[in-house]
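Readers outside the structure-tokenisation community will struggle with the description of the input data as it stands. What matters is that the chain and its backbone geometry are given together, residue for residue. For illustration, here is how one protein appears when written out as sequence plus structure tokens:

…
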Amino acid sequence: MAPSSPVVARWDLGLRLRERRELLGLAGTRASKLIGLSPTFLSDVESGKKNVPEAKLGQIAAAYEFNEDETAELEELREVARHRGWWSKFSGLFAPEVLRFFGLEHGAETILTFNSSLIHGLLQTREYAQAIIESGSPNARLAEAGRRVEARLTRQRRLGGDDPLRLITVLSEAALRQQIGGPAVLRGQLLHLAQRIEEHPASLTVLIVPFAAPGHDALDGSFHVLSFPKPNLPSVAWVEMVTSMQLIEDPVQVKEYDIAHASATDVALSRADSLELIKQTARDLE
């Protein structure tokens, strides 16, 4: 099981409440009156943006006809959801949607990713991450850049431990050759990437789409598809663009990113050949 995440627990709780309300045929406005919450607050609870007040959970359980065991599960989720994740100390640096992504990532079981020009953030060295952040925000204060790097490195803890995140990342060959931070920084990054691949063969898969590969459905961007250990939690997609980042929950759209990842995987090198290309690219930088 993935580690507990307040963001995932809050989302899980909200989904269960919304599903039960809809099953009972209760409109949101009617339900909000029954339990004494504003329609806006109830909507935020159901979408996972806010936690249920402790005093209200019993009323909701009664109004929604949850049995004793179900109510106990809701209470457990509410308890986890009230805690603060590691990402909360970076709330002044990142938008709420980015912080929510961090929380979902922390509680995910599997992540499928495609990156067109950069090594995935969970696999970056400190120097490589620093170079990306400083080049992307040239006017950012050094202290702020340092904290952003710290946040990125903290995210990487999910790749270790007793139950590591399963990461399947497909990279364009361009990501191996774009000299972020200069040749020495890139070489260090590639050696680090190769080492991580060899150290975590069961949980980490890195595939490279070579320049000679034909076109595929993921050509125009970078994205992540997150899946969770509980069967009632649907997969979600996180899409990163030049000017915006977006969490996608619509199942039809998420499926499209699944298909795009599979398309990129189909034209990528094998695991062994991908690893050899990473190592050869690093040797070329000596």
In short: Strands lie at 110-115, 166-172, 204-209, 222-227, 236-240, 245-248.
